[in-house]
Design goal:
Uridine Diphospho-n-acetylenolpyruvylglucosamine Reductase, domain 3; binds flavin-adenine dinucleotide; globular; Uridine Diphospho-n-acetylenolpyruvylglucosamine Reductase, domain 2; binds uridine-diphosphate-2(N-acetylglucosaminyl) butyric acid; five-stranded antiparallel β-sheet; 3 domains; single chain; four-stranded mixed β-sheet
């Protein structure tokens, strides 16, 4: 039986730790309760927001509509061959819990994506990525429900239109499609481990590991992440606040003329990706505190809430950062975090 709550606190349901409320709030633990919720007038009359772990959301005010909190659970093997296993995970499963479940069975493919907070169902939304790997590389299909018609739909990777921190779910299907499960294709043997990322190689070398397993790569990723990213259980944050910008080779060269040590990465179609954290640090923001919010001392791309900060304070700081990067480098930063 679906329970529709009112004026529900969201403080513990967003990793920024912003103290706001939802006008209406419902938890959906399975597709039957989602169908029940769909039949209520509140679904037709009110703006809605699907909420997973709240680790990529910034609330700037009370949400004047219906928050649908996803708690769907379950993981199972749907097919198996000699080299691959196909795993389906319900969208409310914790992402890192799924990674650990797969590592326990020595299945490869998710190790570089270890310790990313949030739910499995939100992973395709921005095509989560870390340390040279994106989820699009292992996704076989995404299942969900059209919230207007109630119809089930299965999307292929092509239909998901994955890009860097992008997918169709952030555009045409935004708040219209509830992802109920995802299916991944993982390796059972002959794992194709990606250890190209400098920091992973360094950790493996320090640990004298020459033939790493998926678990070894995961352990290295976890160690790297713990050394620079703040734990949301300790200090409020939503990971990278901005995306890394891509600029033309000409723009990159002109910045490098003045800053020879600027890090950069080539992308497809001759653009160059510049780490936003580096740009922000050059503007003097790293470790700066502004009232109750600030810029993380180890990673300038992460805005933190030291406690009691509001969404408006965080947005104001992000606008100041964006303006100073624009002024110094003529580069425009785009937010990664979903601001509501
Ligand atoms: P939420 O914040 O709850 O929602 C995010 C968006 O997805 C919202 O628009 C929401 O409406 C929508 N949504 C959520 N669930 C569903 C669903 N079932 N159906 C339809 N829409 C849905 N991200 C990376 O890519 N790489 C990283 O390395 C990384 N590191 C991070 C480190 C830290 C410390 C933190 C706090 C965040 C980090 N993130 C990273 C961002 C974040 O963890 C991911 O984007 C994650 O996938 C968000 O999951 P969530 O369940 O918390 O989503
Ligand atoms: N850098 C600085 N100063 C800083 C931060 C970074 O100079 O304050 C430089 C680093 O020295 C390095 C480069 O920027 O040369 C890249 O830094 P890092 O490896 O920390 O990665 P990032 O580009 O800042 C991205 C993702 C992260 C992901 C890591 C690891 C984006 C927007 N962010 O960060 O994802 O975990 O790479 O792959 O693409 C997230 O999306 O929330 C997130 C945390």
């Amino acid at each position: 039986m679906i329970e529709l709550k009112e004026h529900t606190p969201l403080l513990h349901l967003n990793t920024f730790g912003v103290d706001v409320r939802a006008r209406y709030f419902a938890e959906v633990a399975d597709t039957a309760s989602l169908e029940e919720l769909r039949m209520l007038p509140v679904m037709r009359d009110q703006p809605r927001l699907i909420l997973g772990g709240g680790s990529n959301i910034l609330f700037t005010r009370d949400f004047q509509g219906l928050v649908i909190h996803n708690t769907m659970k379950g993981m199972r093997i749907v097919a198996e061959e000699s080299d691959y296993v196909h795993v389906e995970a319900a969208s409310g499963e914790n992402w890192h819990g799924l990674v650990l479940y797969c590592l326990d069975r020595n299945w490869g493919g998710l190790e570089n994506l270890s310790l990313i907070p949030g739910t499995t169902g939100a992973a395709p939304i921005q095509n989560i990525g870390a340390y040279g790997v994106e989820i699009k590389q292992v996704i076989e299909c995404v299942d969900g429900i059209d919230l207007s018609s109630g119809q089930h739909r299965r999307l292929t990777p092509d239909e998901c239109q994955f890009g860097y921190r992008e997918s169709v779910f952030k555009h045409a299907l935004r708040e219209k499609f509830f992802i109920s499960s995802i299916t991944l294709r993982l390796t059972k043997k002959n794992h194709r481990l990606d250890t190209q990322y400098g920091a992973i190689r360094e950790v493996l070398e320090q640990r004298r590991i020459t033939s790493p397993t998926p678990r070894d790569v995961s352990d290295a990723v976890i160690a790297i992440r713990r050394s620079k990213l703040p734990d949301p259980a300790v200090v409020g944050n939503a990971g990278s606040f901005f995306k890394n910008p891509t600029v033309t080779a000409k723009v990159a060269e002109s910045i490098r003329g003045e800053y020879p040590s600027m890090p950069s990465y080539p992308t497809e179609n001759q653009y160059v990706k510049i780490p936003a954290g580096w740009l922000i640090e050059q503007c003097g923001w790293r470790g700066k505190k502004v009232g109750r919010v600030g810029v993380h001392p180890q990673q300038a791309l992460v805005i933190v809430n030291y406690g009691g900060g509001t969404g408006a304070e965080i947005v104001a700081l992000s606008e100041e950062i964006r303006a100073s990067v624009r002024k110094k480098f003529q580069v425009e930063l785009m937010t990664e975090v979903n601001i509501v």
